[in-house]
Amino acid sequence: MQVYRWTLTMALSIVHRATGIALYVGTLLLAWWLIAAASGPAAYAHVQAFTGSIIGRLIVFGYTWALMHHMLSGIRHFVWDLGYGFKANEREALTWGAAIGGIALTVLIWIIAYAIGGGR
Amino acid sequence: MSATDTPKRSMRTPLGRVRNLGAAHSGTSDFWRQRLTGVAMTLLMIPVLVIIMMLLGRNQAGAKQILGSLPVAIIMVLFIIASAWHMKIGMQVVIEDYVHNEKLKLTAIILNNFFSIAVALASIYAILQLSSGV
């Protein structure tokens, strides 16, 4: 592998996999949250205590970014699947777009969330 | 797999062995479903984010009322099915890429199926219970 010069598209390919794996594990949190909502007030309060804690907020923030990044990076793959965007500058633009867009959407979502939920 | 790895000598060429349904003998259905579920989740992303925003700051009674309403429940169930299917295929691709021991690979693929199905069914069951008002 050392013979390859690292490129942006290579790095983002790894990040696409890593975020996919993180989202996979994170579905446990989603399932826990839904089951707690169905179980009753005490169980739901547990989930809210966790997601409201510093660690919980960091995990949910990271999950938001993983989801947004994986989605935009996936849309990039759709463009390639359809046969477009293979020129060097198009490749780079799509990849930068996914990387920056993922961060921008995550920040936007959390600003809206804090505005609505008042920081929960 | 190089020619020396094949257990039995065969007159078939490498190309001949992978024609039609390919090396996995299941064709391109996983490739197609991976994209189908990806498109589905992308389309459902805005409604799902709106639902999550609606739930912020509410207690269990409020969450139950929102998650139990019909349109919300349908969107959530669709999103869960697409997610579970998508992640099952995605993880299988990762396993097939990095786990080369045949027994370990099969075990990992089985566990991947169990995990994805269990997460999906548990989540869907919770949504249905919230909807039925039990």
Automatic annotation (TrEMBL), chain B:
Membrane-traversing stretches: 36-56, 68-86, 106-128
Localization, UniProt: Membrane
Pathway: Carbohydrate metabolism; tricarboxylic acid cycle
Main location, first listed in the record: membrane
Keyword tags: Electron transport, Heme, Iron, Membrane, Metal-binding, Transmembrane, Transmembrane helix, Transport, Tricarboxylic acid cycle
Pfam families from the UniProt entry: Sdh_cyt (PF01127)
One cellular component term from this protein's GO annotations in UniProt: membrane
One Gene Ontology term from the biological process aspect of the record: tricarboxylic acid cycle
Gene3D superfamilies recorded: Fumarate reductase/succinate dehydrogenase, transmembrane subunit (1.20.1300.10)
Membrane topology annotation: Multi-pass membrane protein
Membrane listed as a keyword: yes
MF GO annotations: heme binding; metal ion binding
Cofactor: heme
Domain of life where this protein originates: Bacteria
General function of this protein: Membrane-anchoring subunit of succinate dehydrogenase (SDH).
Self-association state and partner proteins as the record states: Part of an enzyme complex containing four subunits: a flavoprotein, an iron-sulfur protein, plus two membrane-anchoring proteins, SdhC and SdhD.
Name assigned to this protein: Succinate dehydrogenase hydrophobic membrane anchor subunit
Organism for this UniProt entry: Bradyrhizobium vignae
Gene: sdhD
